[in-house]
Amino acid sequence: MTTPHTRQLDAAHSSTGLLPALLCAVLSYSLMQTLLVPALPEIVASLGLDAAGGGWVLTAYLLSGAIAAPILGALGDAYGHRRLLLWSMGAFVVGSALCVVGGAFPLFLAGRVLQGASTASFPLALAIVRRHLPSDRQPAAVGWLSGTLGLGAGAALVIGGFIAEALTWEWLFVVGVVLGALSMVLVACWVPRSPRSGSARTRLDWVGASLLALTLSALLLAVSQGSSWGWASPVVLGLAAFAVLAAVLLWVVEQRVQHPLVDVRVLSKPALISVNLLTLLLGFIPYLFYVGLPAIFQALQPHGFGMDVAQTGFAMLPGAILVFLGGRMTPKLLTKLRPGVVGMIALAAMGVGSVGAAVCVSSLPALIGFFALVGLGNGLGFALAADLVSRLVPRDEIAAAVGVNGVLRTVGSAFGTPITMLILASGVTHDTSLLLFTVATVAAMVGMVTAATIRTPK
């Protein structure tokens, strides 16, 4: 019979392979967040899409992932995190393969939807860490996973730029197939099987899942397609109103379900409210830079720097590396400082980076350096949020709770992209660049205030 003590001993013996297996899965997902950005014009032209259709290349992945993360996380809590991680990465591999071979847009779109299942890799990986690694190794593992999440999104801009320059866009998805398949092999070999949850949650809360899907679908569609459809159009306003109504119904229904998909009683804890609000901003601020800096770097002088795609990727690489290092630093900081203080440090770094970018908008070295500072704060914040959520909820609800937290990061990112495009719609000028970084600064200041409210039970 397998006991908790036996599982801990087994985990200690296999931890050398367990963490790399989880890192490979999370890296597969995080790369695909931004890997397509450098090649997006080529993909749109190859598939014969207009601007609205091109938006779906990114929106399909975003929307699918936001819905999949909490649902697959909840299923992992009930039926085993390893099993659901293998299923989610399997869907990712199939989706990547469809994007490689699918010449028609509907098949390509189906592939992007399947790829979105990999979004669950992060919450499932955190749950596996909390269940199978000894407690003294968990903070470092959370830092590795959080750092990889940010590193992948930043490094993908470099990798995607090189592939877009040297090969065709289909090779971007070949990368997904290879990494996804490798992660499945590593997970199958090194991650122990998880027992079913000790709670009575053995069936998915389908009503909650449906309401969550409706809420997110309406919200993300309104945000991601608002610039194409018109922000004041009846469709966008109707979607926004529908999202609010569905969210209210979700909140009411989940308080009456014995084993809810979204446990609002847990999420309504003051500490988790602060962490989730902070996560929203941690998703929003970096995407102002991810979308805005390439436009500034590639714009012609005097307002830009006339760089090509590969040069842009290299310029943004230091920021990606600092995201990773920030995630690795967080566990050590948490041994010396309160979580709220660590959160304030993270958002202060992002704020200083944003102010510096605004002041030195005409200096390429300064922009690269200050973006790296934003990346450092982002890495610190990512790791802090993941650590707090996984410690503040019951162990058999970790994956679902982290999945919901990840949804908020996705929503923040979804807002960051169209706001950046709206600010730069009239072209890259000194004034539009200054406005972009000012918005980032204000968001960072709000984040610092939010971080100061974090209070965790002793």
Q: How is this structure best described in words?
A:
The protein is mainly α and 458 residues long. 79% of the residues lie in helices and 0% in strands. It is built from 17 helices and no strands. Helix 3 packs antiparallel against helix 9. The longest helix is centred in the first third of the chain and has 31 residues, at 4-34. The protein is globular. The model is unreliable at 5-13 (pLDDT under 50).
Write the layout of secondary structure elements.
Blueprint: H1 4-34, H2 40-46, H3 51-79, H4 81-101, H5 105-115, H6 121-132, H7 138-166, H8 170-190, H9 206-229, H10 234-254, H11 264-267, H12 270-298, H13 309-334, H14 339-359, H15 364-392, H16 398-423, H17 430-452
Could you provide a short overview of the structure?
With 458 residues, the chain is mainly alpha-helical.
Descriptive terms for the model:
458 residues; mainly alpha; Growth Hormone, Chain: A; globular
CATH topology of the largest domain: Growth Hormone, Chain: A
CATH architecture of the largest domain: Up-down Bundle
> In angstroms, what is the radius of gyration?
21 Å
| Number of beta strands | 0
Whole-number mean pLDDT: 84
Helix tally?
A: 17
Full CATH superfamily name of the largest domain: MFS general substrate transporter like domains
Name the poorly predicted regions. 5-13
The CATH class of the largest domain is identified as Mainly Alpha
**Overall spatial form:** globular
- Describe the main β-sheet briefly: none
Question: What is the N-to-C order of secondary-structure elements (H for helix, E for strand)?
Answer: HHHHHHHHHHHHHHHHH
Which range does the strand content fall in?
A: under 5%
How many domains in all? 3
Task: State the secondary-structure class.
Answer: mainly alpha
